[in-house]
Amino acid sequence: MGKHFNTPRFTLLALALMLVVAGCDRTRNQKGFEYFPDMAHSLAYETYAPNPNFDNGSTMRTPPEGTVPRGYLPYPYPATIDGRTQAGLELKNPMEAIPAVLERGKSLYTVYCGACHGVAGDGKGALFTSGKYPIPPRSFVTDEFKARPSGEIYHAITQGFGVMGSHAAQVKPEDRWKIVTYIEKELQGK
């Protein structure tokens, strides 16, 4: 062999190359060798998984009292008739009735309101007309309801009213105003 061929160096290089290749995951069935596996695989608990670290055994924690999610402000009106009346007097719809707002309002109305209040807003939604829900929902197209200020409709979506529950957790504040705009412009013809 040539004078530059060094058997011990060649053997060490060959062993190192075999170790590197053996540590690779060519089949995706074996993960190979890992350094610091605790850094690669989180030991965190999933949100709804049981957790022995807390007294109630729940991973999901209740936020501290008084905290507010980013992008939200506390709603200042209580879920009462007086709160609805006050919201009607003080809240003004900031949305302009442009096609994009009306389209989004219609889409949200269909998802969150139409099943009870009906596609036409007449209170004859599928849940009521099918007999599955015995209490007739409010009609948005009566003269009495058309006279209500925008803030009252917004308040009812936010806090609920009567047997209707709050939709604040499902519908963002801006989108609530889009629903109000759709109801007033398209269903009531204001």
In short:
This protein is mainly alpha-helical and about 190 residues long. The protein has helices at about 5-25, 35-40, 80-90, 100-110, 115, 125-130, 145, 150-160, 175-185.
> What is the CATH superfamily classification of the domain at 81-187?
Cytochrome c-like domain
Helical/strand content category: mainly alpha
CA distance, first residue to last residue: 98 Å
CATH architecture heading of the domain at 81-187? Orthogonal Bundle
Order of helices and strands: HHHHHHHHH
Which ranges are low-confidence, i.e. pLDDT below 50, for 5 or more consecutive residues? none
Count of strand segments: 0
Measured on Cα atoms, how large is the radius of gyration? 31 Å
Helix content: 40-55%
Give the overall shape.
elongated
- Put simply, the count of helices is 9
Oligomeric state? single chain
Q: What is the name of the CATH topology of the domain at 81-187?
A: Cytochrome Bc1 Complex, Chain D, domain 2
